[in-house]
């Protein structure tokens, strides 16, 4: 059974930009999680931020104003075997 959660992952191109964006979002008290990017999305050691759709505008604003380069945005789908990820974009959230 698939459950489409209201959670999204932003995969950020560099670890330093990911850390910077995370800190800026935390200063604004936006509810986010900082994680290592799941290997099903990207192999390597990149970092990602999990957020909910209600925070989309605040996060997009920070990405734009700080010129953060993102690899992609993915929606989390919980399955019986863990998670799947569907690539999306901010306009679809």
UniProtKB/TrEMBL annotation:
Which domain of life does the UniProt lineage start with?
Answer: Bacteria
**Pfam families annotated for this entry?**
Se_S_carrier
In what residue span(s) does the Putative Se/S carrier protein-like domain sit? 7-75
What is the name attached to this protein's record? Putative Se/S carrier protein-like domain-containing protein
């Amino acid at each position: 059974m698939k459950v489409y959660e209201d959670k999204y992952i932003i995969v950020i191109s560099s670890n330093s930009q990911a850390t910077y964006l995370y800190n800026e979002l935390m200063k604004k008290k936006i509810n986010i999680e900082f994680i290592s990017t799941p290997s099903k999305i990207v192999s390597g050691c990149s970092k990602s931020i999990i957020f909910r759709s209600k925070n989309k505008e605040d996060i997009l604003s920070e990405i734009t104003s700080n010129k953060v380069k993102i690899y992609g945005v993915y929606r989390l789908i919980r399955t019986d075997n863990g998670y799947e990820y569907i690539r999306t974009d901010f306009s679809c959230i």
